[in-house]
Amino acid sequence: MLGLGADLLWADMNRLLAFLFHQGVLDEQFLQLQQLQDETSPNFVSEVVNIYFHESEKLLRNLRGLLMEREFSDYKKMGIHLNQLMGSSSSIGAKRVTNVCLAFRAATDHSNRSGCLRALEMLEHEYCYLKNKLHELFQIEQQRALAAGVRYPVQNN
Amino acid sequence: MGLGLKMKIQEMQMVMQKHHVPVALRMHEQNGSQKRKYTLIQKNRALIPLFLLLWILVMFYFCCNIFNKMDADAKVRRKEGLESQCDQRARMLQDQFSVSVNHVHALAILVSTFHYYRHPSAVDQETFAEYTARTAFERPLLSGVAYAQRVVHSERERFEKQHGWIIKTMEREPSQLRDEYAPVIFAQETLSYLESLDMMSGKEDRENILRARATGKAVLTAPLAFRSHHLGVFTFPVTNLSFLQSHETRKATAGYIGGSFDVESLVENLLGQLAGNQAILVNVYDVTNSSTHLIMYGSQNEKGDMSLVHESNLDFGDPYRNHTMICRYHQKAPTNWMALTTVFLSFVILLLIGYILYGAGIHIVKVEDDYQEMEELKVLAEAADVAKSQFLATVSHEIRTPMNGILGMLGLLLDTELTSTQRDYAQTAQACGKALITLINEVLDRAKIEAGKLELEAVPFDLRSILDDVLSLFSEKSRHKGLELAVFVSDKVPDIVMGDPGRFRQIITNLVGNSVKFTERGHIFVKVHLAESRKPTMNGTCETYQNGETDEVGHISGGCNSKTLSGCEAADERNNWDNFKHLIADEEFLFDGLVKKVASSECYEQVTLMVCVEDTGIGIPFSAQDRIFMPFVQADSSTSRHYGGTGIGLSISKCLVELMGGQINFISRPQVGVHFHLLQTLDVHKIKNDVRADVRSSSSLRSQPCVMKPVELLHEIPLTRLVSAKCNTLKAVVCGDVYSDYSADMFRERIMVFGRGWSFNIWQLDWKKNGHMLKIPQMILLATNISNAEFDRAKAKGFSDTVIMKPLRASMVAACLQQVLGMGKKRQLGKDMPNGSTFLKGLLCGKKMLVVDDNIVNRRVAAGALKKFGADVKCAESGKVALEMLQLPHNFDACFMDIQMPEMDGFEATRRIRMMESKANEQLTNGDEHPHLPILAMTADVIHATYEECLKCGMDGYVSKPFEEENLYQAVAKFF
Q1: Nearest C-alpha of chain B: how many angstroms from A87?
Q2: Which of A15-24, B349-358, B843-852, B951-960 has the highest mean pLDDT?
Q3: B969 to chain A nearest CA, in Å?
Q4: Average pLDDT, integer, range B281-285
Q5: Which residues in chain A have their CB less than 8 angstroms from residue B413's CB?
Q6: DSSP state letters, A96-132
Q7: I need a labelling partner for B776 at 20 to 30 A (CA). Which of B131, B693, B828, B958 fits?
Q8: CA B8 → CA B16, B18, B261, B409, B742, distances in Å?
């Protein structure tokens, strides 16, 4: 029963991934990331993604602060932040976030404040969505690991 | 799962239907637009017969007009002819008459001269008769002339006495009493009966005489009724005075000369002299009395052509009398045949033209109708084709997704605890699933090619590494079957060519896969060389093998032991060892080290490669050779039962080759083998020399030439070539027979390479008997397939690390040789790994890497990726930190540098590192240099300008972010 549960979870995970791919939230880079995960670093993906979340939240906070703080925002600094965010997003394969970042950066290049605000909101939205979904994914993966962990001793007996 | 698939298919069908509707709609629209595009002729197709009818009518009317005009012309001409002839006749008659009158006038003067002015008279009847008779020719119109003297009544008796006769009347009776008489005293013989007759007794004559006397001119009588109508008389007054005024004429008149003329005979005579008198009917009338025309010539009864009459006036010099000549044609105007035929023929011609036009019109309409029908059908067919391709693509794609699930599940299933039967079933299922996926991929490819959607890349790729890959792919299989699998790439073939590596690999994989599939024993040999270099050796025998008579030739030569790779006979006799040696000799002539080679290959813009795949399998039967490239066709239906497969591979290969602008062909002899050769023209990728030199994996070997020579090789032909090509400073000697060349000299060589067959035998020999213990050669064992037991045995004999499994790959041999020679041990460790992750793993294993990136996520990912390949990774979060870590001496093997970093970017950091290196090198003057640290840029944008800048500031290459294995491998392979 438990083994079957693990498979079901596996399928769930695959489905969720496929869904995210289909929506364009993630791209191949995430798969590459997953491939990097092996026995030597079993939690590599979640580790990287957690770092990513940590970093990104900081960056987002900064961005919001920069935009809200003064009438004349520091667009250059925002651009640097965005580059950071974009780089890390593309590294983990968060395609949609990357795309929004691109738009955001274009807005900062033109010093388009309203555009920046819109892009920031969209970015926050995308970010939240990504975060939720990835958390969901990791939860399933954890469950699966648990289930698999339970199963193996049974097998070994 | 099955349910899911079903649902998917239903969904797909719905999609297809939806697709179909627009297609149909589009077709409809096209039809509509085509209907609007009807040509003029097509629009008026109902009018074509009407046009024909109209044409005929118009032409008929036209022809009638022409005929009428021609007929009218002819009539005018006829009329003119008649007029001119008539006038001519009239004029002639008139002239003749006036000539006669003139002569009579002369006669009158004669009479007056000799009769009145002479006394006695010089003229008597005899003289007059003779003179007139002799001058009658001068008066052709007159039958005779007579002279009557004027005698008044008072002189009658004297006159009668003088002449001795009495004056008689016309009735020959003595004349009654009158005022005046005009008895004839002289007469021409023809008129002698007139003598003594009183001319004034006849009423008409009297009038005439009176009139003549009054006018003093010649006057004419009406035709004489009493004889025939045709005889006329004219009278001329003779005066006894020389010159007379008109009013004196009467008094002076002394007599009258009269002449009778026979109009009929005269006119007849006259007309006889003229041409065409038969055609014309001439009547001469006296029209003095306008109510009754007296006919003078011609018969009233002869009607002639009454429709056309011409009337000419005749003037005989007598104003009192009027004459006319009336001419008409004897016959009616003939029918104008010429006009008729002309018109008829032209009408016929025009009719035919009309009919031809009509036919053409009908034909055009028909053809255009047909054309439109075809267009519609074409649109339908194209729609069907598009639908088919779409369907195929969709279905293949949709099947692939669940198939992945199936395969994944099967994989999982195989991981669980299974009984052997279950495992067998599951494995079979997995194998089948894999085959199915392959098939679907191929079908998808085929569909893509057909739909023209397949796009070829043009990227630089290394031909050799691709061949290595393909070979390693099949090495397991061929080893299992016991086949020799070898590849040979000519050194003239450029290292890097432009093209689509994926597709090229696919083609080679297809061909080699086929060969492996259909070959049970012998060898498979892949050979790549420039097409030009092959030509001289090919010319002679080329023709013989292309035609159908290869069979016989093949069997004759089949008996002898072929000098091919495995000793088995091959399909193409040209491809034997002798030719091969020639080829190599040719090339080695040119092959004088790297410089020359670089120079020679850089002068090519394009190269034409000849890729040959030769096997010794079952071959292709002659009957099937012409359809071997057709999709889903295998040589024999039994083939698929024996060997499996669908037969689509070759057709895809052909499509791909043709798409890339090459050509593929084959030579085959059943039961002997197949020899596929494809000609492919590729651009040469030009890269800088220093980079290029590093690309060659063997360059490190080449750079240490002094150590190893010569090498002794035994029998392995391609190996000889391989080793000598890779380390061309080595000397390779081929020994056909190990025992014959088994001399003491051999032991001076440092390396011996053995084929598996005899390696153990040799080992049995006692090395020590030569006493050269120290110089025992290094041994390399070549094996096609080797069991564990054998491997252990070999190990025990001393082939510890030096067993090379075939197929031979350049990198592997090079690594092995280096190992044997004890150099570059550490660095060459990964050499014998193929391309891809395992190779990369070997490449990077144990290397110390520094990753410099400000972005912690990127840093982490890069580190993870590198760690995965076994590298020892250190990270630095900024350029400054990296500089500190790279203070000399350090032990990093490579550095990955992000370009965009705050404070100090990648370029700046690299520049400083290089500066540091050069400074350190200056301080170390003893020649022992610090190694050049490879620095690779990591950048998200891979545009060329960035790359240039990377090189400019001292970096050695770049990897695009995010990391991809292939990319990483390509970048790293240059340095390790």
Answers
A1: 7
A2: B349-358
A3: 15
A4: 80
A5: none
A6: HHHHHHHHHHHHHHTT-HHHHHHHHHHHHHHHHHHHH
A7: B828
A8: 12, 15, 133, 19, 71
**CB distance A90–B962 less than 8 Å?**
yes
Residues of B in contact with A3 (CB under 8 A): 416
Q: Are the beta carbons of A93 and B858 separated by less than 8 Å?
A: no
Contact: B961, A7; criterion CB under 8 Å = no
> Residues of B with CB below 8 A from A155's CB?
416-417
Q: Would the CB atoms of A48 and B857 count as touching at under 8 Å?
A: yes
Residue with tokens 């010569």: B710
Domain spans of chain B? 76-329, 368-445, 848-974
Average pLDDT over every residue of B601-620: 75
| Candidates A40, A87, A92; nearest CB to B940 | A87
Shortest Cα–Cα distance, B918 to chain A (Å): 33
CB A133 within 8 A of CB A5: no
* Whole-number Cα distances in Å, B654 to B107, B440, B508, B680, B715: 128, 18, 11, 12, 36
How far off is chain A from B902, nearest CA to CA, in Å?
Answer: 8
Of B232 and B692, the structure prediction assigns the larger pLDDT to B232
The architecture that CATH gives domain A1-34+42-141 is Up-down Bundle (1.20)
Residues of B contacting chain A (CB within 8 angstroms): 409, 412, 416-417, 854-858, 860-861, 864-865, 867-868, 900, 902, 940, 961-965
Contact B541, B547 (CB under 8 A): no
Tell me the average pLDDT across B45-50. Answer: 84
B246 three-state secondary structure: helix
The ipTM (two decimal places) reads 0.72
Q: Which residue of B has its CA nearest to A155?
A: B417
Q: Which residues contact A155 (CB under 8 A, 6 or more apart)?
A: B416, B417
CATH no. for B368-445: 1.10.287.130
Residue in B867, B900, B962 closest to A91 by CB: B962
Tell me whether residues A38 and B868 touch, CB distance under 8 A. Answer: yes
Per CB distance under 8 Å, which residues of A are interface residues toward B?
3, 7, 10, 29, 32-33, 35-36, 38, 40-41, 44, 47-48, 51-52, 55, 80, 83-84, 86-88, 90-93, 155
Q: What is the pLDDT of residues B377-436, one digit of tens each?
A: 999 998 888 887 777 777 777 777 777 778 878 887 888 888 888 888 888 888 888 878
Model confidence at B348: pLDDT above 90? yes
| Partner-chain contact B860 A47, CB within 8 Å | yes
Q: pLDDT digit string (tens) for B95-152?
A: 887 887 788 888 888 887 887 777 777 778 888 888 888 888 877 777 778 888 888 8
Check if the beta carbon of residue B843 is closer than 8 Å to that of residue B833.
Answer: yes
Looking at CATH, the fold of the domain delimited by B76-329 is given as Beta-Lactamase (3.30.450)
pLDDT of residue B835: 43
Q: Any idea which of A115-129, B583-597, B821-835 has the lowest mean pLDDT?
A: B821-835
Q: What is the pLDDT of residue B568?
A: 61
Alpha-helical segments (H) within B830-943: 837-844, 856-868, 879-885, 906-923
- Chain B positions touching A80 (Cβ under 8 A) are 902
Q: Helix or strand or coil: residue B604? A: coil
Under 8 Å CB-to-CB from B147, ≥6 apart: which residues? B107, B111, B115, B128, B184, B185, B186, B187, B238, B255, B256, B257, B258
Superfamily name and number for B848-974: Response regulator (3.40.50.2300)
| pLDDT tops 90 at residue B374 | yes
Mean pLDDT of B18-40: 49
Predicted confidence (pLDDT) at residue B16 exceeds the cutoff of 70: no
Give pLDDT tens digits for A46-62: 888 888 888 889 888 88
